[in-house]
Amino acid sequence: MKITFLGTGTSQGVPVIACGCHVCSSPDPADARLRCSVLIELPDQNWVIDAGPDFRQQMLRARVQSLGTVLFTHLHKDHTGGFDDVRAFYFKSGAPTEVYLDDHTRELLHREYPYVFDGTNYPGLPKFNLHVFGGTTPLAVGGYRVQPIPARHHKLPVYGFRIGGFAYVTDANYLSPESLALLQGAEVVVLNALQYEPHISHYTVPEALALLAELKPRQGYLTHISHKLGRHAEVSPRLPQGVALAYDGLSFTLPDPPAA
Fold it and tell me: pTM above the 0.85 mark?
């Protein structure tokens, strides 16, 4: 499977509107960060984790031609605000999009996109199959095994996912011992690391690095990055071996996940 970071920025993205700081004015493409999402390309299907406000731009930029599944980490707008644009893939394929989400996110989608779910079925409506999950029961997604990873985003329950050797946890500042055990042995672990200063609902760089040192993946990546963190070229040399800042467009391959 091929994993591509579609977006690595925080809820405001980088550059931030009306900000002239040295990060937001950076000419380095690695400092231009759309809202957080990843594309997972499997031999016979494509998935995304989260569909935020930049979803349309991300799909066009990555030239994604088909999408079968969306996995949502949580309900916040920077992770769900592009849901309406997912319909383009239904119009092309005629096949409903499979959507995996917790109950909080399901309630949000029903509230914010009532026309999709109100039963009117007027021409032009997309079709989505919603699969609500909770806890740590593994999911069967497109014939593959996906392990939900419960986490906390301050007081909000959120989810990361482990897909074979790939583990992805964003918008979290607490993982229980049970959740950490589910991450053990992953080849690549992605954690959110908003900034260096303490934050109420996100891991900081030191906190994320401490977790990665405990988990010992072959490669760790930091995502959901704020302009307060600093420029990519400034921060990267300070990170320990085996840990890197993710950036939009970064991709890598891993063995396909196990069958469900």
Answer: yes
